[in-house]
Amino acid sequence: MLSQDSKIIVVGGGVFGLSTSLWLARAGYKNITIYDRCPFDKNFYNPSNGCDGASADINKVFRMAYADKVEYQQLAIEARDIWQAWTETVMASSPPELPEGLTPEDKLLHVCGSYFLDEGTVLRGYYKDSLAAMEKTAPEFRKMLFLKLGKDNAAEKARLRKISEKWVEKYRVIDGINNGNTNGFIDIQAGITIADKACVYARFLCEQAGVKFVLGDPQGKLSSLIIEDDGAQKRVKGIKTCDNLSHFGDLVIVAAGSWTASIIPEAHLTVEATAGTVMFIDIPKERQDLWNKFHPDNYPVWSYRKGDGDDRISTPRTKYSKDPIDTVPLYGLSRMKEVIAQGFPELVEFGFTDSRLCWYTDSPDHNYVIDYVPNYSNSLFICTGGSGHAFKFLPILGKHVKNQLERVPDQFSAAWKWRAAEEGKPNNGLLEGETGPREMSRVEMADRCDFKMEKVQWK
Ligand SMILES: Cc1cc2nc3c(=O)[nH]c(=O)nc-3n(C[C@H](O)[C@H](O)[C@H](O)COP(=O)(O)OP(=O)(O)OC[C@H]3O[C@@H](n4cnc5c(N)ncnc54)[C@H](O)[C@@H]3O)c2cc1C
Ligand SMILES: *[C@@H]1O[C@H](CO)[C@@H](O)[C@H](O)[C@H]1NC(C)=O
Ligand SMILES: *[C@@H]1O[C@H](CO)[C@@H](O)[C@H](O)[C@H]1NC(C)=O
Ligand SMILES: *[C@@H]1O[C@H](CO)[C@@H](O)[C@H](O)[C@H]1NC(C)=O
């Protein structure tokens, strides 16, 4: 049985590992150690400095709109309060009160507004459901959503103008996309989180709560689980790290993001690594006009979905892998170029400066996978399946992970339970395997010269 004295080993110091450890430690669990192969105490979750986990990024969208998934919507609303409290605390701190890698200027959450866009004039089902769910379950938050349907939205503009003229400007800045033929809404209480800095802060809070860290390769890198198998019962006794040391514990929590299935082989039909294409545009320092224009104070974050295209590919390989990769699929890249040329022509001259494949950990149904792994006598726990939407829950996720660990049923227990993709049921492409169309060798990759934007061909 799990107790506050149990020795708990957590593999992975991203969102899932940090949030879980923070909530456990704050609830009185005394013996928690996080192992991560990345030296976060030295590189501070900086994605251009050797970090390739999903959580180590420049920024991530913070949204509350979740269509009919009201539990996640409510969780995001709850998370928002903590994000704001963290942001205020950091900004009110003096530099020596903060950990290395974080300064009082680092604003963890920017409530810059978040635009959800789709092509055409008919409101996308997901957006319609989001509006309806909020209307019903969080009406105060629904009032802060402003619809965009086609070009003229006088009533919504008037409603925004009552809040501030700034929001009317933000409401219009994306008008260039698809020549204004877009629909969707802006949520003026959503925005972006500064991901790497938020992780640095969460790690700091973990340390303050007594969580220990073993970071870097080889000492923080798991090489294998130590499994005791007496035939009738398997039990995980601990982990072996790449420095050849064994670490024993009562419970091992694997929160290794897209690497999870390579640690727990039973999870290969439960979670799958799929890549998202991330591109960077560096605006030169002397272009203060553009820095100002795109500052979160003046610009919302936005997402634009065109049709149903959602091509992603399979098996973690990054800039920092043994077999490194520094490019992205051509398909995603050309779509980005098209939208930028339409909506943001002032950025075309800079081209893309860098790229990144950010690895999602997809579950069969986009719900997380947070449960004991069957047949290990409660000694092995899986905590992953972010499916591209877990960053926003960094401050709160662990509250509900703790419930699953303690077997206290809550609103997420059913959705997060251990499960495997099944043949003949919707499974998010999880059974396509190596012969599927998204397998990386079948995806056409971009050349560095494709990073230039002059090359856009107009249809
Ligand atoms: C392109 C992209 C965009 C996204 N955008 C958003 C967004 O806008 N909003 C949002 O809310 N969410 C977003 N997400 C989702 C969010 O980033 C993830 O759900 C979340 O960061 C996953 O956290 P994690 O802890 O599971 O994984 P990770 O952050 O990958 O952490 C896993 C950790 O395990 C470590 N590890 C792996 N193997 C080993 C080993 N053998 N030994 C020791 N350590 C190991 C890794 O080093 C890593 O630090 C996005 C994800 C991607 C990929
Ligand atoms: C954690 O557990 C280990 C192994 O049982 C023990 O040696 C150590 O003293 C414990 N640490 C704390 C802080 O309880
Ligand atoms: C770990 O053990 C292996 C095999 O015994 C050996 O090759 C390797 O050098 C050792 N690594 C370290 C860091 O001691
Ligand atoms: C657990 O054991 C049962 C009974 O042997 C088996 O049917 C099941 O597939 C096992 N589950 C996993 C995830 O291995």
Automatic annotation (TrEMBL):
What keywords is this UniProt entry annotated with?
A: FAD, Flavoprotein, Oxidoreductase
Where does the FAD dependent oxidoreductase domain lie?
Answer: 7-401
Is Iron-sulfur tagged as a keyword? no
- Which coenzyme or cofactor does it need? FAD
Q: Which GO terms describe its molecular function?
A: flavin adenine dinucleotide binding; sarcosine oxidase activity
Q: What would be one Pfam family of this protein? A: DAO
Question: InterPro entries from the xrefs?
Answer: FAD-dep_OxRdtase (IPR006076), FAD/NAD-bd_sf (IPR036188), MTOX (IPR045170)
Family, per the entry? Belongs to the MSOX/MTOX family.
Q: What is this protein called?
A: L-pipecolate oxidase
